[in-house]
Structures are given as C-alpha cells and as structure tokens.
Write a structure and sequence with these properties.
The complex is a heterotrimer of chains A (308), B (515) and C (364).
Chain A (H helix, E strand, L loop, with lengths): L4 H27 L7 H19 L2 H25 L4 H24 L16 E2 L10 H5 L2 E2 H19 L1 H11 L1 H6 L4 H27 L11 H11 L4 H24 L4 H31 L5
Antiparallel strand pairs in A: 1-2
Helix pairs in contact in A: 1-6, 1-9, 1-10, 1-11, 2-3, 2-4, 2-9, 2-10, 3-9, 6-7, 7-9, 10-11, 10-12, 11-12
Chain B lengths: L2 E11 L5 E11 L3 E5 L6 H8 L7 E6 L2 E3 L4 H6 L2 E4 L11 H6 L5 E2 L2 E2 L1 H14 L15 H14 L4 E5 L7 H16 L3 E6 L2 H7 L2 E6 L2 E7 L5 H9 L17 E11 L5 E11 L3 E5 L6 H8 L7 E6 L2 E2 L5 H6 L2 E4 L3 H5 L6 H5 L10 E2 L2 E2 L1 H14 L16 H13 L5 E5 L7 H17 L3 E5 L3 H7 L2 E6 L2 E6 L7 H9 L6 H4 L4
Parallel strand pairs in B: 3-10, 3-11, 6-9, 9-10, 15-22, 15-23, 18-21, 21-22
Antiparallel strand pairs in B: 1-2, 1-4, 4-5, 7-8, 11-12, 13-14, 13-16, 16-17, 19-20, 23-24
Helix pairs in contact in B: 14-15
Chain C lengths: L1 H33 L3 H10 L5 H26 L7 H19 L6 H30 L3 H23 L21 E2 L5 E2 L1 H18 L1 H11 L1 H6 L4 H27 L11 H11 L7 H22 L5 H14 L5 H23 L1
Antiparallel strand pairs in C: 1-2
Helix pairs in contact in C: 1-2, 1-13, 1-14, 2-12, 3-7, 3-10, 3-11, 3-12, 4-5, 4-6, 4-10, 4-11, 5-6, 5-10, 7-8, 7-10, 8-10, 11-12, 11-13
The chains are: A mainly alpha (308), B alpha/beta (515), C mainly alpha (364).
C-alpha cells in the first residue's frame, strides 16, 4: 500500500474548499445570532443551479453566477420564513433541507428525465484551475499550492474578507450588535430583520460558491444529494472556532483532510468502503466532543477559582 | 410654553387582549421635565414604546412640534429628535462605549466604519454635558451608573430634543441618583425636554414641573407640580392612600434554619460574585437583603435554590449541607423559592394553572395512584388554591400565560407558600404587580414567619418592601455583606444608600452578632 | 380572557387547516403546470388514492410507520430537542431485526416468541443509537441536530456494511440479505384491503404514548421541561436527565417503527440509503402539535398525499419527489407564527373592544 502524500495534501485542500465556504456562510448567520442549518440545502440547490445555468447559458461563468443567484434566492426563502414568518429557525431549516433534497431531484427530472445525475444530459463545465507562475515550479509546494481551482483561491480571499468585513465595516458592526443584543440594536433604529436578511444574503452568496465548486470543480455534473452533509460539517467547523473566520477556515481544512483521507484510501486500498465513508462524519462528531470538553473544562476551572 | 410633543387619544390593546392604553392624551412642553407616573402595569411603558415607534397603537395621533407625524419605528422617532433610555439597558456588552453610542448612526470614512471618529464624537458630547465616561472602555466593564450615562449619550449623539427616561433611578444608588438629577437639569437648561417615568413621588416632586398620571391604562389628568403634594398624586395613581406600613409583632427567634458559611462563587469570567458571605437565618424571622442590583443578590439566590454551584464554603439548611445537592434534594430539605423573574423560573407559561401549582410536588408518591397520576387529588388541590389565593381565571386548565402579572405571581406563591417548607427564599416577590397582590404577598410572608415559624430571606430592590417586611436587614455590595442592621424599619433610606454605594462599610466587629 | 383563549385555540386549528390547504393547492398547481393532461393528473392525485380497496389499504399501511415515527418525534419535540436520529434508527433497526432473525432462524421459534424478540431488538437498537446524541447533549452540551445528522450518515454506512458483509444472499442478482424466517413476517388482514397487521402495533403505540404523556408523572415532567426548562429545574425536576430519557424513549419508538416496516413489507433487507421516515415523523409530530392522540391523523394525511403522488407517478410519469417539497411547505406554514397572526390579533382586538364597551355601559 503506497500513498502519494503530496497528492493527498493537494486533495485535502481541494476538499476543504466547499467546507470553508459553508463554514463562512454559517458564520455570518451566527454572528447575526442565527444558527443556520439550512446551508446544507442551500449548497445543494446552488450546485444544481450552477449546472443548469451553465448548460443553458453555455458558459462556466454563467454557471457560477447561476449558483450564486440560487444561493441568494434560497437564503431569502429561509430568511422570509424565519424572520418575516417567525417560524422556528431549526424547523425552518429542517423543512428547507427536506425540500431541497426532493426538489433538486424533481427539477433535475423535469429538465433531463434523469433522477440520479445530470452527467448524461447536460454538458459538463469546469471552473478553471490556476497555475501560479514561479510557485508551480517549486517541487512539492508547487504541486500543492499551484494548480488548484479558482474557487479554492477565492475561498482564501473570502476568509480574509470576512474578517475585515466584521471588524471594519458598518454592516459588520451592526451584524455583531444584532447577534449579541437584538433589542439594543432595534432601539437605535437598526432593523433586526433587515440585518438578518443581509446576513442571509451574504450566506447565500457563499453557499452559491460552495455549491458551484461541488458541481463544477469537485465533479462536473450534479448528482442526487451530492452535498452529503458538507453543509453540516461547515456549520460544525465554525462552531468549533466560536464564529471566528480564520479558526473556522482551519477547522474546515482539518475536515477537508479527513474527506481526502477517505477518498484516497478508497482508491488506493481495499479497506471496506463503508467504514471509509464514515470518516468525515465520525471526525466531525469527535471534533464536536473535543471542543465542548475543552470549553467545559475551561469554564469549570475558572468557576472553581483555579485560573487565578 | 410651546408644545414639543402631543399624543392624542392613544389606544393600544395587546394580542392577549390586555388593554394597555385607552384614549390617553399626553403633551410635553419646551424646557420641561414632565413626570409620567402610575403603578406598575398602568401603561406608562407601553405609551412610551408607542411614542418611540416600538409598538403600534390601534388608535390615536402623535404630533411633534405641532405637526402630525407617523412614527412607525425607532428610526422615525430618532429622526424626529426623540431619544429613549429604557428601563433595561439596551447595550451591546462586548462593544466599546464609542461603538455603542454611535451604533445606528455610525461615522464613516472611505465607506468604512470610522472607529477613531466615533471615539472623538463620543468624547466631545460626554465633555459637553460633563459625563464622566471613557469612550474606549468595553461596556461589559462599566458600572450600572456609567451604563446609564452611555444610554443618555446614545440619545444625545443622535440629536435628541425629547428624552424619555423609563424609571432611570430604579437601579441607581441615592448618590448616583443625585448626579443624574444634576445632569438632567443641565440638559433641560440647554433645551432638551425630558419625560421622566417613575413611581418615586419624592423624586417627581423634586425635579419635575408637570405630572401626568396614568391608572389602569387611562389618563387621570395632567397638572402642574406646583400646588400639588405627594398624597394628592398617589391618590390619583391608586385611587386610595398607599398603605406601606405593615404591622408586625417582634419575631420569636428559634433555632437556626439556614447557615451560610464563607461562601465564595466565581463566575465564568473569573470574578468573585459572592465573596466570603456569612450569615444565619433563624426560625420565625424575615431577613431582608438590600443592595443595588447586580451586587451578588441574584447569585446568592441561585446558590441557595440549588440552581448553581459555589466554589468554597458551605450552606446548611436545617442542619444538613446543601453543597452538591440537586434542587429536588434541597427542596425536600425544606426550601421554597419565589424566583426573581416569574416568567423565566416561576411558571411554565404554556402549561395549565393546575400543572404549575403542583409542579414541585406531583412526582411525590402521594400524588400517584398505581402507575398513574392521581387526577382527582391534583384537581382538588388546584381548585383549593385558586380559591385560597384568589387567582382570577376561567378554569384551572387555562394556560398560565393568559393571566395578568399579579395573577401569575399568585400561582407562584400558591405553590411556594404551600409546599410545607420552613425556609422561603423570596426574590423580588412583588416586582411589577398590582398593589393588592403585592400587599397580600408581603403580609403572607410576615404572617408565615410569625404563625408558622418560617425562616425567610427577602431579596428585593424595592426599598420600602425590604424596610417594612424585614426584621433584620443586610446590605450586599460587590458580593459581600457590607452592612447589617438589627431592626429594618428603623433604618433610614439615606443611611442605607451610603452602604449600598460603598461610601461607608461596616467592619466585621460592627456586624458581630447581626449576621 | 376567556374569549381570547377561545380565539387562540380556534385560530390554531384554522392555521393548520389553512396551511394544509395551501400546501395542497401548491401541489395541484405544480401538477397542473407540468403535466400534459392536467385535469386527468389532478383528478388522479386527488381521487386516485381512494380508487380501489387496495389503494385505501396502502394509505393505511403507509400511515403505520409514519404514525410510529411521529410518536418517536413527539418525544424529541416535547422536550424541544430536534434529535433527528430516528432517520438512521429506522434503517438500522430494520437491518438488525433482519440479521438477528436470520441468526435465530435455525432454532425454529414460533411467531409469538420471535415477534416480541424482534421488537425488543429494535427498541434496544433505537435506544443505543439515540444514546449517542443524547449523552453528548447532556455531558458536552453538543448540538443535537448536527450530531444526529452526522450520526445518520455513519449509520447508513454501517447498515450497508452489515448487509454486504454479514448477511448478503449471494444467490440473488441484486444486493439483498438472506430471507427472513416466516415466523417474523407479519400477515395481511381485512381481505382485499390487504392491511398490515402492524396496524395493531401502531394502535398500541399510540395508546401507550398518549397515556405516558398525559397520565403519568414522566409525561408531565417531559411537558414541563419542554415548556420551560429553567422553571422545571427550579421546581426540582432534572431537566437534563428528563430530556435525556425522552430522547432514548423516542429512539426506542423509531426502532419499533423500523422493525414493524421490515416485518410487514419485506422478506429481505435491501436498503442502502436511509428512507426519509425520520423526517416524515417530524412532519407528523409538527402537524399533531406534539400531541400523540393527533399523530395518526397527521400520518394518514401524509400517507394520502404520498399515495396520490405514487398514483400520479405511475399514470403520468411525474416523479414522487415533489411531495417532499409539499411536505416542507406544510412544516413552514404550520411553524410560521405570524402566518394568519394578523387575523387572530384583529379578532382578539374586536373581542376586547366589545368587552370594554360592555364594561363602560355597565359603569354608566
């Protein structure tokens, strides 16, 4: 059993891309005080949207735009139900994810007559990969850092942008204020609902990017339930990092590697595939346990007066 | 004097059918500190929320400087020069003073939030009106008095010409109150009109020039303060003379029921919220705890009720330690608990009156018939207590949230007073409820201590209440017992204020024998 | 106050009904828009489920697992924990029942022994699986929703592994288990309706859960904890352990649901993905407003639309997946507080005003 470690690391970074977007999408809602499980379904819808727009528009860029538009639209649906309709956010998201699972198959069937994948009926488009001059020639590093999808580099930029956005812009400040004390924000005339809608819009764009990566980079078609829990994994990643952008990205990277490990082992060993498939989910569960234990111990120590 | 604001024939009915305001007309003039008084639940806060655009009335008009205006949300209100300082502070703790002050009208530079500009603007206004706050400090590090200043700064920064203060002195010490009044005079002189909501009539008499009285959601009239006295206003407010005296005989002390020994509690940010607390409560006495809110009273009650743990020390209830015990075990040891916030810890709003009344005891064997609950017994008990405590309701199966505040509190006390406990932990037992129910609760507390020998700890922000109901009085400050007095009704509010604020502190020797 | 209460409870029923009607109308609109022969298709969707005794029987048969899953979710929902692990349990318990029954087959035990044993296996499976998110919630305060969804993915792989490596029948062309012994295959009843005898299991479950919720101390505890956990703690109930036990109980019922489905409808275990039953259970519990007595009604309604979709699928080639969209719309409408709240408030305002006037008239 030989494993190509360099390819593995490159694969890990690649697999982390949709997770980073998902984590940032969940993060912006969390900063505004909302636990948005709907990212899962939003990404799934965006993935299908990207493929449809690309096929009918005849261009990968129209596809990318389509993914973003669908991400935005689905974000607005959840925002409308929970903010304007005042439905419980958990229930809204569960219901929405349910609709996304069935709805994507339904739409796919109407357009292609297929129920499992669009690969036969739709032309496949791929978001270009970028070779970085100079760096691509460095051994090892070149193979890892260079030649990734455009969206992978965009994910890195998105992390920095999110940090800057929350700290230095007016909307960022208002989002944090709403998340921490909505009544205070409301009392100075900030519309909590409007801030909620803005957060969901940003969340939608990020989900769009995540979905576009899934159906135009990870693979080049849409298939039934292809997101497969990545939205939830992103959600857990930002939860582990307490809603901080950089930490969330690092946690996503960790999960990306688990995902890569699972696929690498599936391709290169004959270990039962079912157990390898469990890896990313088990890793998430363990990560949740570990972060909670750390948080609880820290609090206990302070309360027992040992921190002094 | 020109009118800056007039509310005409305002009617507001809440979704639960409660008529909060009915045909109220209320006007404020230039250079005026105008008192809006009324009992809790008279509709003052609702009326002000309507003026500030936080609630929409079903009927009525609002005029600002003589012009009819629609105020649909706080933003409209702010734009029309109205500022409001809420009873519960509307601040974001993790942000700085400058960020809180400018939030909603942030200074911008190159399309980004201008933090330095915000600090500068905040400091300028603070200096102009002599407010001593640091714009760079985080709000979570401020004292209550300073937080209130930040609240007023917020309104002034946005150009408020009419300032609404909703019970601003409720959380302040007498000395902080003085400071606030000085600042209010300065604001008035510089052209800001002020609506001062309060039920402390002596404060109203001192600083206001006009007063409007509300009662049960209706306006009882607006008049000049000159020529009025407290008794006249209070008569309008409640329709009868306020009875604040509770006649009680001297307590007959029995054995110690609750012994609190060197209790220390540290909160999640490492602060000692209870710092070496020591005192004992005996059979047959009511021990009162006064103090500015946020000085450890809530933590003390949570520790005593078994809702949170403490780091060191010990608490004995009827001779046994409660350390590490569950709420169930502590209740079985003889504790009953009237929680500070009844909707949070006192009742389950969606559940029936019946379930709420037996919530602490239905798990006991005598409420069971085989595997099932003894429905008849539970129904009988519920009917009995609804009658005994005069709970106004349609039936015992009605959800508690449909009742009025006072009747909800009656459900709470019906449960806690009948639990058979010999220690009653009463936290803010009459907050926000009608006078009649408050009187019933206070009298029952005293009666139980005299007739049944119950030990009571009364924690209240209502000074009248602690002074009248308690036998012994303790003052809490910064998590410590700062003072102790043998006879509560002989302590003056001024003396109390000095200990609450920390101008004076008693030594251990002075408190010897009183803890 | 009395009037307000009446208006509130009346509007609650109206809201659910209007929600159902709207969702149903959306379903009809979708069918109308996409099919070539809309009138025939809509007619099939609405009336098709009642067109033969067999189909009516199928509605009831489908409602059986929905009912039991709905009861399972009532437990989770009652203590406000959206523990969605029922989805995985349903699959795993069917898998475990098959496996254990195959292992026990050589002993040739009669049905009266085998069926109860299978139900116990299913309940234990449910409790064991539900234990994981429940204990993580209790000990580490971990988010139950995320953990249970992750766990569902793990379970799906686990059940598939058991099927592939532990009980696969290599003599058949597709991936399926060995046949289960006849002693656990439940018979059909009521002649041409072909209703499953699992119906009795569902009825017993409804009765047991209803009694548990409304007549026992544990049911009261759960409802108090769900209504206000801090209050429940303050009066001496252990909110954490009650919601923990409620989640285990919910898991047990999800297990029963999976076992009943397996024993009624299949002779081989052949699922490689989860079956949506857990989420269907959530819909049913939401429709029933966590009241176990109303659960069968919600389940029958869901089964009716599902069969309608099946009929349409066979007669008009329209994929059944559109029903999940309808299901989502129903949950959203029923859960949305402000849906029709304007109407409710107007009614209350009118009632209050009337009362006020009456009072004033009296005073005058």
């Amino acid at each position: 059993m030989t494993i190509d470690w360099i390819a593995f690391i490159a694969e890990g970074i690649r697999m982390a891309t949709p997770l980073v977007f998902a984590a940032l999408a969940a993060l912006i809602c969390r900063q505004a005080g909302m636990f948005n499980m709907g990212v899962e379904g939003m990404i799934l819808c965006s993935a299908l949207g990207a493929v449809i727009f690309a096929h009918y528009g005849g261009s990968v860029w129209i596809g990318l735009l389509g993914g973003i538009i669908i991400g935005l639209a689905t974000g607005m649906v959840i925002a409308f139900a929970s903010l304007t309709g005042k439905a419980d956010l958990y229930l809204t998201c569960i219901a929405f994810n349910l609709m996304a699972t069935g709805g994507t198959v339904f739409v796919m069937y109407l357009l292609t007559g297929e129920k499992s994948t669009t690969s036969g009926a739709f032309r496949s488009y791929q978001i270009p990969t970028i070779n970085i001059p100079l760096i691509q020639d460095i051994p090892v590093l070149g193979r890892i850092v260079s030649g990734q999808s455009l969206l992978t580099y965009l994910a890195v930029i998105a992390v920095a942008f999110m940090w800057f956005f929350l700290k230095r812009t007016r909307v960022g400040l208002r989002i944090r204020a709403v998340g921490e004390n909505p009544k205070a924000a409301e009392s100075v005339g900030i519309s909590v609902n409007k801030i909620g809608y803005i957060s969901f819009a940003i969340c939608g764009v990020l989900c769009g990017l995540s979905g576009a990566f899934m159906s135009m980079s990870w693979v080049t078609f849409f298939m039934k339930n292809m997101v497969n829990g990545r939205g939830y994994i992103g959600l857990s990643a930002q939860n582990m990092a307490n809603g901080q952008p950089v930490g969330s990205a690092l946690a996503s990277l960790l999960f990306g590697f688990t995902d890569a490990l699972s696929t690498t082992l599936q391709n290169q060993t004959n270990f039962p595939v079912e157990f390898l498939e469990m890896l990313p989910y088990l890793a998430t569960i363990f990560a949740i346990i570990i972060t909670s234990v750390i948080a609880i111990n820290k609090r206990r120590k302070i309360e027992q007066g040992m921190a002094k | 004097m020109a009118e800056v604001m007039r509310m005409q024939d305002i009617t507001k009915i809440y979704p639960n059918g409660f008529v909060a305001n009915k045909d109220i007309t209320f006007a404020v003039g230039e250079h005026e500190i105008h008192a809006l008084v009324g009992e809790n639940g008279a509709g003052k806060t609702t009326l002000m929320k309507i003026l500030f655009g936080m609630e929409a009335p079903q009927e009525g008009k609002i005029f600002i400087n003589g012009k009819e205006e629609k105020i649909a949300n706080p933003l409209d209100a702010i734009a029309k020069g109205i500022g409001m300082v809420h009873q519960h502070f509307m601040l974001v703790p993790s942000l700085t003073v400058a960020e809180n002050v400018t939030l909603g009208a942030e200074p911008m530079k190159n399309g980004l939030f201008d933090f330095d500009g915000a600090v500068k603007a905040t400091q300028e206004i603070a200096d102009k009106y002599n407010f001593n706050v640091d714009a760079l400090q985080k709000v979570s590090d401020l004292s209550v008095g300073q937080m209130q200043k930040v609240e007023i700064l917020k309104a002034l920064y946005k150009g408020a010409k009419l300032l609404i203060l909703d019970e601003p002195t409720a959380v302040l010490t007498p000395q902080e109150t003085e400071e606030l009044f000085e600042q209010l005079f300065k604001l008035r002189d510089s052209g800001v009109s002020i609506i001062f909501i309060s039920h402390k009539l002596e404060e109203v008499m001192r600083i206001c020039s006009k007063v409007t009285v509300l009662r049960h959601g209706r306006c009882m009239g607006s008049m000049d303060i000159a020529g009025l006295n407290e008794a006249a206003i209070s008569k309008l407010m409640v329709g009868r003379d306020v009875v604040l005296k509770i006649d009680k005989e001297a307590p007959k002390l029995g054995k110690p029921v609750v012994e609190i020994q060197n209790v220390v509690k540290i909160n999640s940010i490492g602060k000692n919220v209870l710092d070496n607390v020591n005192f004992t409560i005996h059979e047959g006495e009511v021990v009162g705890i006064a103090g500015v809110e946020g000085n450890g009273q809530t933590e003390l009650s949570e520790v005593l009720a078994g809702l949170s743990s403490f780091a060191s020390g010990d608490i004995k209830l009827n001779g046994q330690s409660i350390k590490g015990k569950t709420v169930r075990e502590i209740r079985d040891q003889g504790m009953a608990y009237i929680a500070e916030d009844r909707m949070v810890e006192g009742v389950a709003g969606d559940m029936s009156i019946k379930m709420n009344i037996v919530a602490d005891r239905f798990t006991k064997p005598d409420f069971k018939k085989g595997m099932f609950m003894d429905a008849k017994k539970i129904n009988d008990i519920a009917d009995q207590y609804i009658k005994d405590f005069e709970i106004l309701c349609d039936s015992k199966d009605q959800p508690v949230r449909m009742l009025s505040g006072g009747n909800i509190q009656k459900v709470v006390v019906a449960r806690e007073f009948t639990s058979g406990a010999n220690f009653i932990l009463a936290c803010q037992p009459t907050r926000g409820i009608d006078v009649g129910t408050a009187e019933m609760i206070r009298k029952t507390i005293v009666k139980k201590s005299r007739e049944e020998g119950t030990a009571t700890l009364l924690i209240s922000a209502d000074l009248n209440e602690v002074l009248e109901c308690s036998d012994r009085l303790l003052v809490m400050r910064k998590g410590k017992i700062a003072a102790a007095f043998p006879k509560a009704n002989e302590v003056s509010e001024e003396t109390l204020g000095e200990y609450m604020l920390g101008v004076k502190e008693m030594t251990q020797e002075e408190m010897e024998g009183l803890l | 106050m009395n009037k307000t209460q009446k208006i509130e409870s009346m509007m609650e029923v109206v809201r659910i009904l209007v929600g159902l009607v709207i969702a149903y109308a959306v379903a009809l609109a979708i069918l109308f828009a996409i099919s070539e022969d809309p009138i025939y298709i809509v007619q099939q969707f609405v009336l098709g489920p009642f067109s033969s005794p067999r189909r009516i029987g199928t509605i009831i048969n489908l409602a059986i697992p929905f009912t039991i899953c709905g009861l399972s979710m009532c437990f989770m929902y009652a203590v406000n924990k959206f523990n969605l692990v029922g989805e995985g349990i349903f699959m795993l318990s069917a898998c475990m029942v098959t496996w254990v029954s195959i292992l026990l087959a050589p002993m040739n035990l009669p049905s009266v022994v085998m069926v109860p044993v299978m139900l116990i296996v299913a309940m234990l499976t449910g409790i064991a699986v539900s234990f994981i998110p429940a204990i993580m919630d209790r000990k580490f305060n971990a988010n139950v929703v995320v953990v249970s969804l992750m766990l569902n993915s793990v379970i799906q792989s686990l059940a598939t592994w058991i099927l592939r490596y532990q009980m696969r029948d290599s003599s058949i062309a597709y991936l399926g288990s060995l046949e289960t012994p006849a002693s656990i295959q439940l018979p059909k009843i009521f002649g041409s309706f072909r209703i499953q005898s699992g119906l009795f299991i569902a009825i017993i479950c409804v009765v047991v859960v209803a009694i548990l919720f409304y007549k026992t101390a544990f049911g009261w505890k759960m409802r108090l904890v769900g209504a206000n956990p801090r209050f429940a703690t303050a009066v001496g109930l252990s909110a954490v352990s009650i919601s923990f036990i409620a989640q285990l109980a919910g898991g047990a019922f999800a297990g029963i649901a999976g076992a009943t489905e397996m024993m009624s409808n299949y002779t081989r275990f052949q699922w490689t993905t989860t079956t949506q039953h857990g989420f269907d259970g959530l819909l049913v519990a939401v429709l029933a407003k966590k009241n176990p007595v109303l659960v069968p009604i919600g389940a029958l309604f869901l089964a009716y639309i599902r069969i309608g979709a099946d009929v349409v699928n066979t007669s008009g080639d329209i994929p059944t997946e559109f029903v999940t969209v309808i299901q989502g719309i129903i949950i959203l409408l029923v859960a949305a507080e402000s849906f029709l709240s304007g109407t409710k408030n107007k009614l209350i305002f009118k009632a209050a005003e009337k009362e006020e006037k009456a009072k004033e008239a009296k005073a005058a």
